[in-house]
Design goal:
The structure holds 2 protein chains of 2 kinds. By secondary structure, chain A is mainly alpha-helical. In chain A, about 85% of the residues lie in helices and about 0% in strands. Chain A has a domain of about 90 residues: Orthogonal Bundle (Rna Polymerase Sigma Factor, Chain: A), CATH 1.10.1740.10. The longest helix of chain B is centred in the middle third of the chain and has 60 residues. Chain B is mainly α. Classes of the chains: A mainly alpha, B mainly alpha.
């Protein structure tokens, strides 16, 4: 009974995911903040993030017929976004100056949001320091490490889901994540 | 107190759950628990700020322009276009027979008017004593005849007067 019920639930969920794909406009509205956030933090460039977000949904729209509902829609869309980031980073390595400028704007916004939500001035200062440390470490991570780090700690995805999105084995995901966290720990230790 | 956790293990504990003995150590060791808490806090601050920032920026900076919209617009424009074509075709279907009828009536009227004019011209031609080209000659003859008549009349008049005298 349990197994049958689970299978039935899985089929219902699968059909639900496919049905959600039918209303593509509302799908874009629902998932775009998440996809845009991932792209913005990966590329640190507003224009590029916006362009790739559009491209991500365009690709999804074109390939919607091939979606069988085996994975969640969010996972599928993030998978497309990760591939776009990979291609983009390969092609645009020389545009670092532009990223640096855009990056400082994004960081200013991040620290403003941290300051706004802090209970005291001391707490705000500490949070800003922490943020600065993680932000600068994230910039130095490899593309794979950064992707895994963002998916785990910003998107709150579990290792299996990250493995599905990136096409890596769970052990590899864990290894990349460990290196990223180690880099943050070392940086914090160095600054404190 | 057990041995301190390795630095690498502290990083791992951010990713995976703790063993029972590690939990016990962290409960007792301020140094290890503080380091782990600091690391977790820094990463969580980053995650929270990122989620908060993106939520704001996506809604503020990105206008809701879906690439699906142009297709829909194209579809609706296409539908409107087809509607317009259908309406035009309908108007043509209704208007064309009416127009043809009016046109044939107009042509018939015009033909009738032309016939009348032609008949008038024929009548004029027929009623002429000489063809139009010979009008000057006819006028000359007519003038000559008139003057002869006048002379005859004058003579006759003088004779008549004489007779009376």
């Amino acid at each position: 009974m349990g197994h049958a019920a689970n299978t039935e639930l899985a089929v219902i969920a699968q059909n639900g995911e496919i049905a959600e794909l039918e209303d593509f406009s509302s799908l874009v509205g629902r998932y775009r903040p998440r996809i845009f956030r991932f792209l913005l933090l990966s590329l640190r460039d507003h224009d590029a993030a916006e362009t790739l977000a559009q491209e991500c949904f365009l690709k999804a729209y074109q390939a919607r017929g091939a979606f069988r509902g085996e994975s969640k829609l969010g996972t599928w869309l993030t998978q497309i976004a990760v591939n776009l980031v990979r291609d983009h980073t390969r092609n645009r390595r020389l545009q670092f100056w532009k990223r640096t400028q855009a990056s400082s704007e994004i960081f200013d916004n991040l620290s403003k949001s941290v300051a706004d939500r802090s209970s005291s001035q001391e707490a705000a200062l500490l949070a800003k320091e922490q943020l600065k440390a993680v932000w600068s470490v994230a910039a130095k991570l490899s593309e794979k490490q950064r992707t895994v780090f963002l998916l785990r700690f910003v998107e709150d995805l579990d290792l299996l889901e990250i493995a599905e999105i990136t096409g890596m084995k769970e052990g590899t995901v864990k290894s990349h994540l460990f290196r990223a966290v180690e880099a943050v720990r070392k940086h914090l230790k160095g600054t404190s | 107190m057990s041995q301190h956790l390795s630095r690498a293990r502290i990083s791992e504990l951010v990713i995976e759950s703790q063993e029972d003995n590690e939990k016990a150590h962290l409960g007792a060791c301020a140094a290890c628990s503080e380091e782990l808490a600091e690391l977790r806090s820094a990463i969580a601050t980053f995650g929270d700020a990122a989620r908060n920032l993106s939520g704001l920026q996506v809604s503020r900076e990105l206008p809701l322009r879906s690439f699906v919209e142009p297709k829909k617009q194209w579809m609706s424009a296409s539908r409107a276009g087809w509607g317009l074509v259908a309406a035009c075709a309908l108007v043509l279907l209704i208007w064309l027979p009416i127009h043809r009828k009016h046109e044939s009536q107009r042509v018939a009227l015009l033909n009738a008017q032309n016939d009348e004019i032609l008949m008038e011209q024929i009548d004029t031609q027929v009623s002429r004593r000489v063809p139009a080209a010979m009008d000057p000659l006819a006028n000359l003859i007519l003038d000559g005849t008139n003057s002869t008549n006048q002379a005859t009349d004058t003579q006759a008049g003088s004779h008549g007067n004489g007779e009376k005298q």
